[in-house]
Design goal:
Number of helices: 6
Helix content: 25-40%
CATH superfamily: Metal-dependent hydrolases
Number of strands: 8
Largest sheet: 6 strands, parallel
Order of helices and strands: EEEHEHEHEHEHEH
CATH class: Alpha Beta
Strand order of the largest sheet: 2-4-5-6-7-8
Structural class: alpha/beta
Length: 204
């Protein structure tokens, strides 16, 4: 199993000073595994735990006062570590959950009460590939009913094949990691053009 690189142990403080209320729009918490075990089947294992206390210290160091915690795949659909971080944030954090295929309405309500405002779907190959189409359609409809948006994790080269699906979505969506476009391939690359066209098609 792949072991991910651990977080930077002593990050520098940037020269730029964020404005009041600045938000970390995408971050993760990992473990600690003795309290929040990793999923038995997972695509990778974090190099070391990165619990909520460590995240809070990092945000303080960088001058960030709010954050969106995105459920990471090592914890699977057990969103407990994320919910715990939100609960201890004094209202500063919100969450993006991974949803089990058999998730109940009661669990969706519990997630919402705990600060979740979106659902994430992985389409990238190294995290297992695209979700089952029937599950995806149902989960998107249920997210919409909750008033949530959705977050979609794609490999840049795959955006074109999902363009019709994305344009037909009934909810607002975010493309995680800016579509994983490789900056080294320059501004004329097809994946970047596909991403920009997708943004133009979905101005909402």
């Amino acid at each position: 199993m792949k072991i991910a690189r651990p977080p930077v142990s002593a990050p520098t403080r940037p020269v730029y000073v964020p404005p009041p209320g600045a938000c970390d729009a995408h971050c993760h918490v990992f473990g600690p595994p003795e309290r929040f075990p990793y999923a038995e089947v997972r695509p990778y294992t974090p190099g070391e735990p990165a619990p909520r206390e460590r995240l809070a210290r990092l945000h303080s160091h960088l001058g960030l006062s709010r954050a969106v915690i995105v459920q990471a795949t090592p914890h699977g659909t057990d969103n407990s570590a994320m919910l715990d971080a939100i609960a201890h944030s004094n209202g500063a954090y919100r969450g993006v959950a991974l949803l089990a295929e058999n998730i109940s309405d009661a669990e969706l309500e519990r997630l919402h009460a705990g600060g979740v405002r979106a659902a994430r779907f992985n389409f990238v190959q190294h995290l297992g590939g695209a979700p089952d189409p029937a599950y995806f359609k149902s989960a998107v409809a249920r997210a919409k009913a909750m008033g949530w948006h959705i977050e979609l994790h794609f490999d840049a080269q795959d955006l074109a094949q999902y363009r019709d699906l994305l344009n037909a979505l009934p909810v607002r969506f975010i493309i995680d990691h800016m579509g994983r476009v490789k900056a080294a391939d320059g501004p004329e690359q097809a994946p970047l053009r596909n991403l920009l066209e997708l943004l133009q098609d979905n101005e909402r």
